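Here is a typical sample entry:
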Amino acid sequence: MIELPVYNQTGQEVAKFSLDEALLGGQVRPALLKQAVVMYHANQRQGTVATKDRGEVAGSTKKLYAQKHTGNARRGNLRTNVMKGGGMAFGKKPREFRLSMPIQQRRLARNNAILAKIKSNTLKLLDQISFPTCKTKEMTKVLKALAVERSVLIAPVGVDQNLLRSTRNIPTATIKPAAELNAHDILQAQTLLMTQDALAGVLNAVKQGKKDVTAVGDGPQ
C-alpha cells in the first residue's frame, strides 16, 4: 500500500490517501509508456504532404535532342527531376501514420503513468479545488502553496467555468478532467495535480468489470 498526503488549497496537509499500487500496474513499465507516447505523437501527424513526380508535372514528353552525335550530354524530356520545373525524384506522397494499441494497454499505460508520478513524488493530491470567481491569481496562489514551479497538469473530476478561466492564462498549466487523461498528457507535465475524488474515480474504474489490466503485457521490448 502507498500512502499519499492530501493537501488543501493553502498547501496544508489535511489527510492521507491510501492506494494499492497493484491497481496501477504494480510496477512502472518504461517500454509500455514509450509505446503509448510514440502512438500519441504518430497520431498527431497529418500525412497530407504531396509533391508531383515526373509523370504529373506539365510539359512535353518528347526527347529534347538525339542521344548521340550532338556533342552535348545526353538529355531526356523536360519533366525529369534535373530540369527546372521538372518532377520531384522520390517525392513525398500522402500516407497514414496512425498507430494503435489495445484498449487494455492504453488503460494500463495511463495507470502506469500515474504510478510513475507517484514513485517520483511529482503527484500532488488536493482535497478539492474550486474558486468562487474566475481569478488567475487564485490558481497561482494554489500552485505556489504546493511548490509547483514548472509545468503542471490539473486533473479534477470535472472542470467548471471558474476553474477553467482561472487556469487558462497560466502558460505552464493544463487542465483536463480525470476521465480524459492519457499517458502522454500525464508524462508531458512535470507535476500531476489531482483531487482525491479524481484519483479515487480512476481506481474505482480499474476495480470494476474491465478485466484484469495488470495482466496486459509490457508492450514491445
Summary: Residues 55-96 form one domain. The CA atoms of residues 135 and 166 lie 5 Å apart.
